[in-house]
Design brief:
2 copies of one chain form a homodimer. Chain A is α/β, with parallel strands linked by helices and about 525 residues long. Chain A has 2 domains: about 270 residues, 3-Layer(aba) Sandwich (Aspartate Aminotransferase, domain 2), CATH 3.40.640.10; about 110 residues, Aspartate Aminotransferase, domain 1, CATH 3.90.1150. The first copy, chain A, contains 16 helices and 11 strands. Chain A has a 7-stranded mixed β-sheet, with helices on both faces. A 4-stranded antiparallel β-sheet of chain A has the order 8-9-11-10. In chain A, strand 2, helix 9 and strand 3 form a beta-alpha-beta unit. Chain A is globular. Chain A starts with 19 loop residues before the first helix and ends with a helix. Chains A and B meet through helix 1, helix 2, helix 4, helix 5 and helix 6 of A and helix 1, helix 2, helix 4, helix 5 and helix 6 of B. Chains A, B: GO terms for molecular function: carboxy-lyase activity; pyridoxal phosphate binding; transaminase activity. Chains A, B: InterPro entries: Aromatic_deC (IPR010977), PyrdxlP-dep_de-COase (IPR002129), PyrdxlP-dep_Trfase (IPR015424), PyrdxlP-dep_Trfase_major (IPR015421), PyrdxlP-dep_Trfase_small (IPR015422). Chains A, B: Pfam families: Pyridoxal_deC. Chains A, B: Keywords: Aminotransferase, Decarboxylase, Lyase, Pyridoxal phosphate, Transferase.
Chain lengths: ~525, ~525
């Protein structure tokens, strides 16, 4: 059979000069010293590879993709925020896996026509649903370059691992954690919170919980959080084997912040009942209304009561870099662990979250395992740190690069100003709501989340919910704006979470006028 | 102050035609109906944005990046697998977060010179350390496009969510799971295994474990796996509150597969001792030597003993698509849950793993929470499925796209052939080892992992380890090849895991000749 696998393979078509020097160097250090004497296989197929037969063709396609991408992001304001998918698109994504190849340019055409054209919408200036960042072009280049380099962030001695730890250090510094703190980039806030609570559980167990498990505890652990706490914390205590009942929700004050007196009372009650208060979760920015717990007060209580102090800062931790609003999250620097999300207010393209832990030793002791195939070395690839010793993942991608590139490009001060800008925009929107009856402000915005509704006189709560849901759906369906809805203390409302570097005040005035218009239209039917 | 925020912002510089029709449509549906009457803010700063002032400049940079990327991947064979970082690079990544901006082209120059130049090495044809895929260019374009679109895979009605579920369906079909099975793309195998074991724990608890926690169990749960099981399973049982002691390691046979008789005996012992056998983990491809447990036998035992049958298929599940070797993982289709890794043998750039669960209801019941801010809707963005109900994450990135594009481009049959090719290459390498004393084959390769060592006569095990570690380090430091090492039944050895679509037989003959050369060099010192 032909020795196809002996050929050198196609050359890339790109413009840069081949490094003849490097080639010679490699040839010199890699002579086939005794290759001729080695048995050659006769039965080996191929070899095949995923590399293209013609790099110049791939390069040309990639250039087209870049142009389309610039157009896609640069003109996002001209498109609807969201639009429903036609059935043809839906059907396309129900086809079975293809056995045979499709030319890559045809694959891209499908992506362009059927994927890019029907987005979630969160890169749009008028997307304010749930809570998402809006991405940035440099970050997308970062994801591309990370994938090109391909490094695995499980650990080792290579540049990506250093960038990863540098970004963790930057985030650590942003919230005022000490240099000795540790951290890990993860998929997002839910896992970052789970990491913090895992360390909390193990540290506060009073026995070797890794070995013995939760059943060995002589007192049930208790975790405290406000009744506004994100649902991921329920998942976390369930995952950790503590059970949902271990998470005690504490009532909130008129501003939806944890009631500190009620927290103290609950801790006392639980001690009396034979339970072990282990952890208090402070929320820096609740998902419903953006409330920020009194973190300094919680830090005090944690010290007094010997609790682990975890801050869920997925929404608000990074307010610490915003000059006009940093005071709102004062006290976060006293936490034992913090979860935060660069894919929110740093606008890193999805996904990247971060867990930070004040005590590096306790963090590592929660997750480190040292199997025989992952031993460290004094030199070589394995001479770096094993980063998998700080979380659930073994292999890990290079999500750090998109964060690093955007922070290098813009500087952290600008991200701080953008956070201030969003908070000011929420205040503007609240003012607009207040000055436009029959709109009703449901919660005074603490930061960048505005809850309001359209309330014509004399209608039941049920009818009001119908009307406001319909307003929300029509805003989405017309592509004008994306809001979501929620229910706060029994009142259903529309909710705008302005975590968006593309939003302008004119977008907010447009929202108000559209809601008023749709409200009239809907309530007349 | 100037109303800078009223200006329209710079236009993208790309070539495609502006859609005047779309613009008119948007203007028609989004008139500033009453905007003139709305209060305008006087104190709002900016607004600033992360978008560039000049898109044409960014486009030009992106074109340069594409050329460099093609060169980087296309010429990877000409570069060393890995090289140590100079101190100047190390220092660069210890700098604090910049407050001020840096021109984006300078940021990219740093990435090119200091990041791309010092990789982990796993895209290189002679990288066989640990166990990693080697990426592919189309996948990198996929990551770029995913970041450009920016969609959040937490759920909702948009194309990315459909692509995500289509890829899950494709992976489900590849391992022969029924159409009714569910799945979720996750960071990687460790989390995929954790998801499978979480469902197993909750289903086999015999009470409402989510609510009550592990302490409420009247019998301790037991999980069984071979003594070759990956370390992530220890992390998993620890995380789940079962404790490391809940994971019973069963001895392996001469081929490092779980000893089925010993497993049966252990289950019997545990029942007698009052414990509740809950789950057996079968490994399809151990990390040490690539051993594949007898999955059909484990499926039988699971039925007989009423156990959850989880398969850790991170390394080997996808052998099910390889025509010559699929028989090796027969029985995987009978599992209750499977973890697998598209960033291994599908060569998706890091990171993407997948958890599959046969019983969709049980899967969802383990993770679903329905907070008030995440209610489904009959229409609009929230009319899609909530994908966060199947795992730990709430927000999630669009890692599916890189898998989708590569599978569309090449077809699944080619990936199957590439797996066969790697397994044939491992057999070749083993033959080369056997025919070149003083090399010693430590374990007959089952699939694509070859464990061997350089064994000159008359040396102690300690000295042999020193010599082989030194061979490994010099291979890495000269950039010739990346192997890792491990210890199997007390014997330290070199380990080549050939999960690499760029490897050619000539790379393996080069490896042998270099190991022989370095072995002589090292053992003479």
């Amino acid at each position: 059979m032909p020795r196809r696998w002996n050929c050198r393979g196609p050359r890339p078509a790109s413009s840069s000069q081949p490094s003849r020097e490097r080639e010679r160097e490699m040839e010199a250090r890699s002579p086939h010293r005794s290759a001729e004497t080695l048995t050659q296989p006769e039965v080996l197929a191929g070899p095949e590879t995923l590399d293209p037969p013609d790099w110049s063709f791939v390069a040309a396609l990639a250039h087209r993709i870049v142009d389309d991408a610039v157009d896609h992001v640069g003109r996002v304001r001209e498109r609807p925020v969201w639009r429903p998918m036609p059935e043809t698109v839906d059907a396309l994504f129900r086809a079975p896996v293809p056995d045979r190849p499709t030319p890559v340019e045809d694959v891209y055409r499908l992506v362009k026509d059927a994927v890019l054209a029907y987005p979630m919408g969160n890169i749009h200036p008028r997307f304010w649903s749930w809570y998402m960042g809006s991405g940035n072009f440099t970050g997308a280049l970062g994801d591309f370059l990370a994938a090109i380099q391909g490094s695995n962030l499980g650990g080792g001695s290579h540049a990506a691992a250093l960038v990863d730890q540098q970004v963790v250090g930057w985030l650590r510094d942003m919230i005022g954690f000490p240099e000795t703190a540790s951290g890990t980039l993860v998929s997002g806030g839910s896992v970052a919170n789970l990491i913090g609570l895992t360390v909390a559980r193990n540290v506060k167990a009073g026995l070797d919980l890794r070995e013995e498990g939760v059943a060995a505890l002589n007192q049930p652990l208790r975790v405290y959080a406000s009744d506004q706490v994100h649902s991921c914390h329920r998942k976390a205590v369930e995952t950790l084997g503590l059970g949902n009942r271990a998470l005690r929700r504490i009532r909130t004050d008129s501003r939806y912040r944890i009631d500190v007196a009620a927290l103290r009372a609950a801790i006392g009650e639980d001690r009396t009942a034979g339970m072990r208060p282990a952890c208090v979760i402070g929320t820096a920015g609740t998902v419903n209304s953006g409330a920020v717990d009194d973190l300094s007060a919680l830090a005090e209580i944690a010290v007094e009561e010997d609790l682990w102090f975890h801050v869920d800062g997925c929404i608000g931790a990074l307010i610490s870099i915003a000059p006009q609003n940093a005071w709102r999250v004062k006290g976060i620097e006293r936490a034992d662990s913090v979860a935060l999300d660069p894919h929110k207010w740093l606008h890193a393209p999805f996904e990247v979250g971060c867990a930070l832990v004040r005590d590096r030793t306790k963090h590592r002791e929660t997750f480190a395992v040292s199997p025989e195939f992952l031993q460290g070395m004094p030199r070589g690839i394995a001479s770096g740190q094993w980063l998998h010793e700080f979380g659930f993942q073994t292999s890990r991608g290079f999500g750090a690069l998109k964060v690093w590139m955007a922070l290098m490009e813009h500087g952290v001060a600008k991200f701080g100003r953008l956070i201030d800008q969003n908070i000011a925009q929420a205040a503007l929107l609240a003012n607009l709501v207040r000055s436009h009856p029959p709109l009703e402000l449901i919660a005074e915005p603490e930061i960048n989340i505005v809850c309001f509704r359209y309330v014509p006189e004399g209608l039941s709560e049920e009818r009001l919910k119908e009307i406001n849901v319909e307003i929300m759906l029509r805003l989405q369906e017309t592509g004008v704006a994306a809001l979501s809805d929620t229910t706060i203390r029994g009142k259903h409302c529309l909710r705008a979470a302005i975590c968006n570097h593309r939003t302008r005040p004119e977008d907010l005035t447009l929202l108000i006028s559209e809601v008023l218009h749709l409200g009239r239209e809907v309530s007349q039917t």
